[in-house]
Amino acid sequence: MRIAIVDDESVFRKQITESIYSLYGKGDVSCFHYADGKELIAAFENGFELDAVFLDIEMKKMDGMETARAIRTYSDSIPIIFMTSHTEMAMDGYEVGAFRFLGKPVELEKLREALKDLEKKLKVEEKLALKVEGEEVIYPVSSLVYSEASNNFVRFVFSGDTVETRMKFADAASLIDSVSADFFKCHRSYYINLGHVKKMGTAEVLMDNGDIIPISRGLGPVAKQKLFEYIRRTGR
């Protein structure tokens, strides 16, 4: 793995790097240091490829949230692990697709867990196999924004693509559940990916592709609870 360590404190950059190397070894992981967000973005502009970014939120020149938003203009999928002593900023991190949050100072066991999850994400991407015009087409489940019941068909809305296939909505939900625990049935006709939620109200939810999905009456509090559970579980 090629990991960027972005922090305006050189001592901390060194500490987190030594901790990562103690867990993985230099043969498996390479750490690249950046003193602020501008240095990292310059690397992206020059085409430098990275597998993940460990990003301090509180930096003077260009803070972590601003840096994360800039990162997303180059890559909407690279895992961003925020490092902060302010856990109340979790919701802000969620909006920029944070992969994990690590408290500062970083605990070695928490770092170990984050690296294991990172390795799983980079090496194994769960897939959905859908029949399209008689042929099976494979899609990464993480790119599925939501599924929608449509008479005897189900619409699978992915980031950048939509697939409609003949099947029962209950079967579609079971298929999704077999490869991911990140979905919630907010309405009798909609099954949403909590990882693609942009904003959630009591009667509707805005997905990150711009679609607005209704929430069944009475399910608003449950939907919000599921979203917070997802954030706590994934660190987003």
Keywords:
236 residues, alpha/beta, OB fold (Dihydrolipoamide Acetyltransferase, E2P), 7 helices
Binned strand content: 25-35%
Q: What is the highest CATH level, the class of the largest domain?
A: Alpha Beta
The rough form would be described as elongated
Major sheet characteristics: 5 strands, parallel
Pattern of helices and strands: EHEHEHEHEHEEEEEHEEEEEH
User: Which strand order do you get reading across the main beta sheet?
Assistant: 2-1-3-4-5
Return residue spans where pLDDT drops below 50 for at least 5 consecutive residues.
Answer: none
Mean pLDDT level: 88
Q: How far apart, in Å, are the first and last alpha carbons? A: 21 Å
Describe it.
With 236 residues, the protein is α/β, with parallel strands linked by helices. The protein folds into 2 domains: 2-123, Response regulator (Rossmann fold, 3-Layer(aba) Sandwich), CATH 3.40.50.2300; 127-234, OB fold (Dihydrolipoamide Acetyltransferase, E2P) (Beta Barrel), CATH 2.40.50.1020. Helices cover 33% and strands 32% of the residues. The chain has helices at 10-24, 37-45, 64-72, 90-95, 108-123, 169-177, 220-234; strands spanning 2-6, 30-34, 52-56, 80-84, 100-103, 127-132, 135-140, 144-150, 153-158, 161-166, 183-187, 190-193, 197-200, 204-207, 212-214. The strands form 4 sheets. Strands 2-1-3-4-5 form a 5-stranded parallel β-sheet, sandwiched between helices. Strands 10-9-8-12-11 form a 5-stranded antiparallel β-sheet, sandwiched between helices. Strands 13-14-15 form a 3-stranded antiparallel β-sheet, covered by helices on one side. Strand 4 (80-84), helix 4 (90-95) and strand 5 form a beta-alpha-beta unit. The protein is elongated and about 60 Å long. The chain starts with a strand and ends with a helix. 32% of the residues are buried.
